[in-house]
Structure formats: C-alpha cells, structure tokens
Amino acid sequence: MSAKHIGRAHGSVWPACLVVMVALALAGLLPLGPSLLFLVATGMAWAVAAVGLDAFSGYLGQPSFGHAAFIGAGAYGSTILAGRLHWSLPVAMLGAVVAVAGLSALIGSVLLRLKEFGLVLGTFFLTFVSTSLLSGTLLAEWTGAASGLQTPQLVLAGSINLSDGVAYYYTCWAVLAIVALMSAALVDATPGRLLRLVKRSDAVARSLAVNPDRVRLATFVWSATLAAGAGCLISLGAGYISPENFGVQASIMLFAMVAVGGLGSIAGPVVGAVALTALPSQLQFAQTGQQVLFASLLLIVFVAGRGGLYGAANSLIHQFGLGLRWTRLASRRPALSGAEDIDIITGDAAAPAGLDVEGVSLSYGGVHALKGVTFSVEPGSVHALVGPNGAGKTSLLNCVSGLESPQSGSISLNNRGGPESDGRCTLHRTFQHQALVPDLTVLENVALGLYRDRGRLRRDRSGAKIVPARARAALIAVGVPPARHHLAGSELSMAESKLVDLARGLVGSPAVLVLDEPTAGLSAEEMGTISDVITHLNRRSGLTILVVSHHVGWIRTVTHRATVLVAGKVLADGTTEDVLASEETRRAFLGEVPDGVAS
Amino acid sequence: MTSAIITGITVGLLYGLMGFAIVALFKMTGVANFAAGTTATLGATLALKLSDQANLNALAASALAILLTAGAGLMAYLLVMRVRDDVDHLSLTVRTVGLFLLGQALLEIWLGQGQPFAFGSVLPDISTTAAGLAIPSSTLWFPLVAVAVIGAFGLIFSHTRIGLLMRGLAADADTAGLLGARTRLLAAVAWSLSSGLAAVVGILAAPSRLISSDMMTSWLLYVFAGVVIGGMTSLAGAVIGGVGVGLVQGVTYQLASDEVALLAVFAVFLLTLLVRPHGLFGAMVGERL
Fold first, then answer.
1. Domain A14-26+35-328 bears CATH identifier 1.10.3470
2. pLDDT by residue (tens digit) across A135-194?
3. Cβ-Cβ contacts under 8 Å, B219 against chain A
4. Is B224 at the interface with chain A, CB within 8 A?
5. The CATH classification of domain A348-423+544-599, taken from the options 3.40.50.300, 3.40.50.920, 3.40.640.10, 3.40.50.740
6. C-alpha span between A386 and A399 (Å, rounded)
7. Where do you find CATH 3.40.50.300 in chain A?
8. What is the ipTM, given to two decimal places?
9. Using the beta-carbon criterion (under 8 Å), do B105 and A291 form an inter-chain contact?
C-alpha cells in the first residue's frame, strides 16, 4: 500500500479556527477603509469555498481545479433566480445552493470514478466547460455571455444594506464562522476521520465497513455546496459578475488559498483565502508584474511549505514551548477508568462462529491465484494458514474478508454449536503491510474498528463513551501503553503499528478474526505478546482466529489446526502437529512443488 | 465534412505528439506536466523572436528555439521539481500548475502588445489536390513529423544505453533507483526531451493558432483528454487518444460550434473512463495489501 497523498491533515483544529474567527471579527472594527473592508469581506466569502475544498483536498487528499465552477454556479444561479425569475434573494440563494448540491452529486457520481490524476484533469475540464457555457452563446440569454450580469442587493428592514460596507462584512463573517467552526467540529468526529481513512486506502476502508466511494461523493457534494454558498456571498457584494471571475485562474487560486493556508487545517485555508484576496491589491505593482509575483510566491509555497501557514504557525508555537498547552486545550479527554483490560473486549463478544470455504477459485487475468480451495475453520479454534510466498494466502484472505469476489465457490460464516447469535456475525481482518491511517492518532485508528458497530453502539445509551474506552482497552490488551495512544499513526514503528492494527481488528469483538502475517518483522518478545493476546482472546470468549504466518515455531505454540496452501491449492489440512510433521508440508516449504499440485 | 475529418486528424496528430511528450515524462517521473502547453508556447515565442529580432531563417530559428526550450525545461526541473523531491507525485504535479501560472505571466509580459502574432509555416509548402479535395500542407507534413519524432524516440529507447535506463525508470522507478540508475539525471534528461518536443508542437501549431500567451491553454485540455483516454501510461495510447479527440472536436466544430466541441470532447472523455476507468490502453495498478 504505497498510495501517498498531498499533505498531512490535522485534527483538533478548532482552537486555531476560533482564534482566526475572533481576529476577523475584531478586524471589522478597525478603520480599514471601505475598499480594504470590502476585500477582506470578499476574502471571507472565498474562504467559505476554501474550507469546503480543504475537506476534499486536505482531508480526502484529492486536489481539484474545478471548484470555481461551483462558485460560479452559485453566483450565477442566485443572480438569475433573483434577477430574472424575481425570487426574493435569500430564497434564490437557497435555491441556487440546493441546485448546485444536486448537480454536484450528479457530476461527482461520474467524475469520482476517475482516480487521482484523472480526477485532477476531470475537475480542470469542468472549469473550462463551465466558463465556456457562461461566456458562450448557448446560454447567453440567461448569463449575459461575456458581458456578465448585474447582481441584486439585499436590503433588510428598509435600511440595512447587506451588500455593502460593514453589514456585508459581518454577513460574510457570520456565514464563514458557522461553516469553519462546524467543519472544525466535524474534523474530530466520525465524518472527518472517515475522510482521512479513505485518503489512506480504499481497501483498508472497505475492511472496516466503510464505503470509500460514498465518502468521496459525500465530500465532493459538501465541498461543492460550500462553493455555491461562497458564490452567493460573492455575488451579494460584487455588484457585477462575469465568466472570468470563475474561470481556470480562479480555480487554481482557490486551490492556492488552501495550499498557502495549509492543507487539512480548516483555519489555514481561511487565512489563505483572506490573504490572497486582500494582499495583491495592497502591493503596488502593474497588473502583469503582480501576476509574476503571485505565481512565484505560489511556486515557493508549493515547493517549500508542505504545511502552509498553519504548519508554520504550529511549529512556531511548538518552538516557544506553547505546544503542550495548545494540544492539551485541543483534545480534552476523559481519564482512564482503571478497569480496562481485555475483559471489556471479551465480555461483549459475538457468539463463536466457524468459517466454511468451499471450492473457492480466483484468477487475475491469466494468473490463477486460487484453484478450488476448500477447508473449514472450526468455531472457537485458532487456525493457521501456511504456505510459501505466492501460494495465494493473501488472495484467500481478501476473498474471506470480502475485498475480492471469487469467480466460483462460496465462503460462509456459521455458528453451529454456539448459542443463537444476536444477529452479529462479523469478521474483522488485519493487514500484512502497514495499514494505519497516518493522519489519525493511534486511538482514533483503533476506534475506526468500531465503525461497523455504530448502529448498535448508538442504541446503547453510553455508546459515545464506550468507543474511546474500548479502543483504549484493546490497545492495552495488545500491549500498547497509554502514553502512545495520542501519537499519530505515522509516528509508530512497524512492530507497534502491527499491534495497533491487531487492536483495531479485535476492538469490535468480531466472531472471526483474520490476521495476515501479524508476526512478520516482529521481535521474539513482540511475537510473544501477540501469542498471549491471541490465546487469551480465544480462551476467554472462544473467538475464532484465522492466522497467516511464516514462523513455524510460533504457529506450533499458538494454533490448533492448520491448512497448507501451495500454488493456490490445499495441500494438507488437519491438526497443526500433524500438518507440520507431514513430509508433503516440509517439501513444500523447502520450495519443491509436490507432484499433482502444479497446474 | 471530409475536410473537417482531415483537419480534425491533422490537429489530433499534434495533440497526440504533445500527449506523447507528456506521457513519456509521466512514465519516467510520475508527474503530469500542466505546464506542457506553456512550454509549447515558449517554443513558438522563441522561434518568433529569433526569426524577427535575430534575423535567423525560420528553420534555424526553430531549431534553436527547440534547443532553448529543452534548456528551459531542464531549468524548470532543476529549480522547481528537483528541490525537495521526496514528496508524492500529486504534490509534484501541483508544482507544475504553479509553473503554468508563472510561465503564462512571463510570456504575457514578453509578448506584450499586439498579440496574437502571425507566424509562417517552417516547413515547405507541399499542399496538393487529390480526388477534388484540397489537401493542406500541414496534413501531409504532420504525419511525417509524428512518425519521424516517434521513430526517433523509439530508436533511442530500444538502441541506446540511456534509452534502456529510461525504460527501466518508466517500468519501476524505485527498483531502477535501487539498481543504481541515476534517477535524477534521467529525470533531468526526460524534462529536457519532453520540453523540446513540446516546443516542436508549439512551432507546428503556430501558423494556425497564431502566437499569444494563451495560444495553448485550451489545447492543453484536449491534449490531456487524449492522454487520459489513451490510458496515461501508454505512449501509443497518447497518440491514438490525441487523434481521436482531434477528430471528435473537428467534426463537432464543423457541425455546431466551439462550445459544443468542448462539450462533446468532455462527454467522450467521461464516457470512455466510465467504460474503461484506466483508459483504452492503460494498465490496472493494484494495491498491495
């Protein structure tokens, strides 16, 4: 899993958002003069879109050069509805925002099937198409083509003109404050975490019962909706709008606001938007010289500052020793209750289940990874899956955990021999390679393992408190001490991240736990911790565990039964002792493929 | 209609040639160069200035312009792309958007008043008439140039040491680096070659596009559309995709308008990727679990 994405997204950004919004509220009281006041107000209107784009680019990790199209749609939509169809302006704005949300859902469901670069280009294309439509002859009757449109003003109670001066300033401020603080709160809640999970990997997200396509679409619609809202605000104060306000340059500018401010920080993009809107006019340069200067500055930010203004401010604060108080302020957390250990996890375990794999075949093009694999994992047993590299072990686990669909055969969970299940018969898995979300803390990573149980936990009254408590218990159970729980996923060693992945697998008390190479790269001591956890879980709650490992000695001490997979076929199946002792298994491990197995 | 098809294919060949330059660079460095159109404009501008102000003949001016643009590409790599290059490919791609903005702003100043400027064809006029149809000179020249350029690159890739290293880099940059290939040197060569080729396209397009700072901006869109339709990693796909886009654009332009042509290409782009998410000739890239 080498997918890498732009920037690092931050949690706990609300203190910074609060500081920035208070500063902007106070700035409105300063004698800025009408033109600067208007520019800062317009900057705040753009910031609404920048905060939306930050969700998509910073937290989901997908650059877009298309969001100016949605700003334009909001601006033109509200102006046309109010000016031509004579709707009242607030209703027209609401109508435009709702229409853009619907439109973006439609566009997104097609465009988001493109990945990474294809999507960057798709969004780029979108701006061209929208500019061409706004300035062209097809819709000229409505859009006024290249000459643009006059925008209506909003006057309250006969005298307060929200389109001008201080009233416009605080209208923009109020909308931005709501949007920014709401975004900052969402960042630390489940939606914000899901974004960073999907940014990490589609497969890991799927294994945690998160549908990455839906997360992407929801984020796209959210960002487009905020962009449309920004468009309404911009047209409210602009007096006049024309197609080039919302063209490719504007799209790049919007992305630049987010990047300059700091991707994935909410507060940063707000500052970036205000700065990039208000500053250029304060620099006394000719128009062309201004563009060169702006482009150069942007390039420097793209090359040098990965964290943008937010990153720079953050490291400054840390340098002056204020960091500790800052982060403490940002993440108030309940103290450990003391009674947390593995029993919290096992106490609520699902009924033990077995796993039946029946004639499963899987091929990638011409490569037959699995050829009719059949075996059973007994309820309540610890079952090893062994075999040389390329035998198809991970392919089989992908089929078992539903990441891939076999061409033929069936895989079913059952709970024969156990009590009636409560409708919960789930299977969780861990990954062979590093699979943590680098932008989330260790604790947040483990809490994602409870996402699939959110419905059940919500019905439970104390659900909201249970999640962090269980996540902490699971971490302690696998031997990750509390001091490490608030580190970022990217700060862990390979061994520790494997332990955290294991905690994420068992935190939801699954009926079957599937572990892909939990011991690879671990020291003897760490392997001992893992065997203790597995044995304890299995004894206490009868949890069924299917484990892939290369350490024969470790398998002998931990597992009851074993299946040997060679070249996509089952070579041996039985008790671990028998299987490991058999001549066939030894030959397979020494690299010979026994007769009759090779295709 | 036939002439619209011929024009479409002719322009499409230039899209394809520029797409070839973009894909070659993408395969070796993982960067999709949004500044490629600006680079082509730079090539055309240099050729114009050299022939007007330095009184060189058109062919010599163009050859020098191509070399200078290759040098500019090298500078862009050294000053912008190579600095802190241990980041992901998407971040590097975003830098080329910054290069695009900077290049546009500088070209706007340099070209100044009086845009767009006319620029004659560098290649001799060989237009002819066949079966009652007037066949313009460019329709005959562009396929020849495309074959010559692609053939030359093919020979470099298959018959030289650096070509072998480049193919290694394109197939698996990490492994090539571990085996001792000097990936940064190769990336510098790739940036120069790709920029030089973009200049060729700019000079060939100049007679019909006229030279202005934004002469290639809308082209970049069509070129990228062709590249993505072709599969992003396939050199042949880039050329075929470019010709396809040129054809769709030429025909819809003839039937309706520029606006409709843009919408049509966008529709073809989306439909192709809905049916084949990795383009027509693109490779599926799996995730290691």
1. yes
2. 888 888 888 888 888 888 888 877 888 888 899 999 999 999 999 999 999 999 999 999
3. none
4. yes
5. 3.40.50.300
6. 16
7. 348-423+544-599
8. 0.86
9. yes
